[in-house]
Amino acid sequence: MEALIMGLLAETSLHPGSGQSTGAIDLPVSREAATGYPVVVGSSLKGALRDKVERERGRQDPLVYEAFGKQANAGMVLVTDARLLLLPIRSLSGHFRWVTCPYILERLERDLALIGRPNDFGSIEVGKGEAALAQIDGSELFLEEISFKVKQIDQGILDRIVDAVAPLIHHKRARRRLGRQLVIINDDDFSHFAKFGLAVQARNQLDNNTKESQNLWYEETLPPDTVLYGLLISRTNDGNVLRALRDLLMKQPYLQVGGNETIGQGWCITSIGE
Amino acid sequence: MKTVWTFRALDTLFFRDGTPFHQGEGGFVQPKGTFPPTIMTLQGAIRTALARWRGWEPGRETDWPAKLGGPEDLGSLQLYGPYLQLGERMLYHAPLLLFGKKKEQTWEITRLVPGDPVCCDLGRDIRLPRLVCPVEGGDPLDAWLTCEGLEEVLADGKPKEHQIYSHDELWKEERRVGLERERDKRTAKDHHLYGITMIRPMKNVRLVVCVDGIPDDWKLPERAVLSLGGEGRAVEATITKVQMINPWPKRPELMEDGDGLIRFTVTLLTPGWYEDPEAVIRSGPPEVPGRCVSACLGKMMQIGGWDMRNGCPRPLWPVLPPGSTWFYKAPASERHRIEELHGKVTGPRSRYGMGQLLIGTWSEKEASEGWKR
């Protein structure tokens, strides 16, 4: 089985929408039902990849149909959801932090094992209200307005996590600050940020003549510097199609996913974890 | 070769019910996802994987291994399942003779037993099921039981709290809205918005299918990623060779009553596909000896699937849902035949594992005592 892991670093805000809702936010992002984590669903990611290949190679290029299929048959590449890996959270204590939790890291371990790259990050114990990080400066860390008691993360565990996550981030500079900005918090604490920590923008449509508000709505977005990852798996014994797609993404790494393209949203840079 | 295949969803899964998509029309009825999927979906994924590992690729029909059969037969394969697995525990759909509800983390459950004979649209002297005890606001139990919990029920008892799992503990529904892109304008195409309900199994929930009859000389990987169900969603399949296939609960001891009869129940562990569903509803699966006294049956399911060879959907067929239970009486001389039915697959789709039966017991004493409306 040929498979690869593709990292997505958000260069602009992302709006992988889930349609309208009757809640306070009119246009929320799509979320996993079981965890409440934001997600770019597989069909959306696959559509974006297909569009990318069509624009780079032309609509009639065989890679379009071989990888993504056509009406009569499925393509040879299986695209999973793009899962959340690192969520940028504002910190009152300093620069923003890349926040994750043991469950997300466990999922990453499982996905890496699935594609034949087993990793064992080791035992990551983080209690409620605690934040594990590399460089401790003081006894407290503020994420948004919530205070966390800091604890030193084991250097061996941190190195293994950074080694696994860094290849999913395209920019070398960003990779270099990964270890410094990474914070691991308890699963329950992370759930709170995943549900309530995303940016919500009010948008307005004005009447051209009177400039009165015609339509006000609120939409939720994933912030720039969010890191997600998805798996691309060859459905056949022949991995040539997957390799051709990988080569294209390595040459042309930018990908637009989700809605609001015309207001600059949805741009990610992909990175193939080799 | 005997093997057990466990499937772990990588993210969400979509197994469409019989509701059609309608393009360009209004309406709010949208295709829902069902879970667990039927064996028709799983057998396709399993056979496709086996064929691919033998070198077959779509379009090269001459390379299709004969041992894997065709669109209407399974060749040399015999399947059992699907069952659910949570961590290390196997789970089975609760028999529909259980009735109750969950109230603030506590289950209130009673059994249904054959009631007094009445005259109704099914005929004269029909014994409709009745409750042993009243449960206000209850329903036939739509839940999953552990192996031990199901053994309790088969032995004329009730499952314990920790042996019952509701759907919410095993999977969540995830509504999704999709659209078609207008490729020239790069906008959403008018009238091509669709909504579906996908299924996201909880952590450690897996589907299990037992596969017998794979030739011994075929090499199988221990793990593979397969696409399963609609939208080509991915699952991790783990394939384990086993000595015996019997992942179902033990049969209770069948006791002969004072009148020389054995009173036993027959419960469907997997959906029951029969040529004459109406006859089966009235008097139980054709292989069962004795006289059917009463039954607790669920609403018929529609099973279709996708015919990969011919590139079209299979026609829908009504099947009895798992958990459907019939109450029987039979002379003690039939004991051996009855005991042999435990775990047996029945009906024209028995090779697919459909119509798998479990034998339990019931008591006339319980039916004649207790609460009556």
UniProtKB/TrEMBL annotation, chain A:
Q: Does the keyword Ligase apply?
A: no
Where does the record place the CRISPR type III-associated protein domain?
10-268
Which InterPro entries does the record associate with it?
Answer: CRISPR-assoc_RAMP_Cmr4 (IPR013410), RAMP_III_fam (IPR005537)
Q: Is Ribosomal protein among the key words of this record? A: no
Sorted alphabetically, the Gene Ontology BP terms of this entry are: defense response to virus
**Which UniProt keywords are listed?**
Antiviral defense
Q: Which PANTHER family match?
A: CRISPR SYSTEM CMR SUBUNIT CMR4
Q: Any idea what this protein is called?
A: CRISPR-associated Cmr4 family protein
What is the species of this protein?
Planifilum fimeticola
Automatic annotation (TrEMBL), chain B:
Q: Which InterPro entries is this protein grouped with?
A: CRISPR-assoc_protein_Cmr3
Q: Pfam families annotated for this entry?
A: Cas_Cmr3 (PF09700)
Q: Which domain of life is it from?
A: Bacteria
Q: What is this protein called?
A: CRISPR-associated Cmr3 family protein
Q: Which organism is it from?
A: Planifilum fimeticola
Show the taxonomic lineage: Bacteria, Bacillati, Bacillota, Bacilli, Bacillales
